Amino acid sequence: MVVAVALRLGYKASAEQFGPRKLLEYSVLAEQLGLETIAISDHFQPWRHSTGHAPNSLVWLGAIGEATENAVIATSVLTPTFRIHPSIVAQAFGTLGALFPGRVILGIGTGEAMNETPATGLEWPAAKERRRRLAESVELIRRLWADERVTFEGEYYQTDRATIYDRPDEPVPIYVAAAAPLATKFAGRVSDGFVCTSGKQPELYHQLVGYLTEGAEAAGRDVGEIERMIEIKVSYDADVDYAREACRWWAALSLSAEEKSGVEDPVEMERLADAAADRAHGRFIVSSDPDEVVEQIAPYVDVGFTHLVFHAPGDDQERFLRQFCSDVLPRLRERW
User: Fold this and answer.
1) Which of these, 194, 187, 193, 311, lies nearest to 246 by C-alpha position?
2) Measured between alpha carbons, how far is residue 40 from residues 7, 8, 117 in Å?
3) Rounded distance between C-alpha atoms, residue 131 and residue 137, angstroms
4) Average pLDDT of 309-320?
5) 79 domain residue, yes or no
6) How do strand 158-162 and strand 150-153 relate by DSSP bridges?
7) What are residue 180's phi and psi, to 5 degrees?
8) Mind listing the pLDDT tens digit for each residue in 55-99?
9) What is the pLDDT of residue 2?
10) Could you tell me the CA-to-CA distances from 171 to 97, 259, 286 in Å, in that order?
11) Residues in CB range of 222: below 8 A, 6 or more apart
């Protein structure tokens, strides 16, 4: 028996790969074709120097919110701890929430050296400090959304009688991205939603749900109230060879954490990615069969992910969107 699940289906706007105008056009088309969420990455520098892009996500979200009608707009994900102070994040998402009430998600994570170090000159800290900074930033952001004249004395951040004057009646939901035990438990304790990405070992996702549940229970929360969002990397095309070749631009995703640890220069990241280009397709569902795509998506739904944001790797996103939304989307809706 197939259990009915209320799926939310979205489009990943790859700011690393496309300029702001092209990204806007693709995202408007995604909504027109039936996708409900537009999630943009927040990069200061892209994975590739020679062909990459890095439009400012906060500016771009204002544009896509106005250009679409009903789509939920989100960061997947932004780092509110280094190059963007959490008080500015609170102000920016207060404004977005006021402009587009009920349509905004603040997705956050601990960040990557390639986005934070070049912009700030700061030495990239260890994982423990990054987690502590993220926890403190969430506390401050929520204080600024709830109170007036906030004087905050944290370990990393301070404010002095700060007020966010423009904000929605209902606070913007905060989703936390994680792929490790402690960060996922933190998401369970404080987040409105949990974010991760596809293409890793299947047992990892069961473990992450367990950590999320553990964190929620420790905080006296119902884990069922935390939405589970996953970026599903899929290269679908009637020409399977084209679909496989399209993945090569994103070869950096196939690098192990050890291979890319501490790399903050897109020139060097591009060099490492090119050396791994033959395994680039490994993080993606690559297929010309829509039923096969649904079957490979099914394990993520089965483990409890209900907000699926699709990330396609190819240069021709319109080609992907039209085929995927015509062939795969109806099958997903029918099955769940």
Assistant:
1) 311
2) 19, 16, 21
3) 10
4) 98
5) yes
6) antiparallel
7) -135, 160
8) 999 999 999 999 999 999 999 999 999 999 999 999 999 999 999
9) 55
10) 8, 39, 38
11) 216
Distances (CA, A) of 10 to 20, 85, 96, 330: 18, 28, 19, 14
Collapsing DSSP to helix, strand or coil, 243 comes out as helix
Contacts 24+ apart (CB under 8 A), 118-127: 118/44, 118/45, 118/264, 118/265, 119/44, 119/82, 119/83, 120/82, 120/83, 122/82, 124/262, 124/264, 127/180
Q: Is residue 250 part of a domain?
A: no
Spatial neighbors of 230 by CB under 8 A, at least 6 apart, are 195, 196, 197, 198, 300, 305, 307, 308, 309
Q: What is the pLDDT of residue 118?
A: 94
- Summarize the confidence of residues 299-307 as an average pLDDT: 98
Query: Any catalytic annotation for residue 307?
Result: no
Instruction: Name the active-site residue from 112, 116, 136, 245.
Output: 112
Provide CB contacts within 8 A for 22, sequence distance 6+.
Answer: none
By residue range, what is the domain housing residue 105? 8-232+292-335
43 is catalytic: yes
In a domain, 211, yes or no: yes
Domains held by the chain: number = 1
Q: Which of the residues 43, 281, 307, 311 is marked catalytic? A: 43
Tokens of 165: 């004057």
Q: Which pLDDT does position 45 carry in this prediction?
A: 95
**93 within a domain of the structure (yes/no):** yes
CATH classification at residue 30: 3.20.20.30
Q: Are 293 and 199 in contact (CB under 8 A)?
A: no
* Candidate from 15-24, 183-192, 256-265, 272-281 with smallest mean pLDDT: 256-265
Query: Contact, 315 vs 237, CB < 8 A?
Result: no
The 10s digit of each residue's pLDDT in 124-168 is: 999 999 999 999 999 999 999 999 999 999 999 999 999 999 999
**299-316 mean pLDDT:** 98
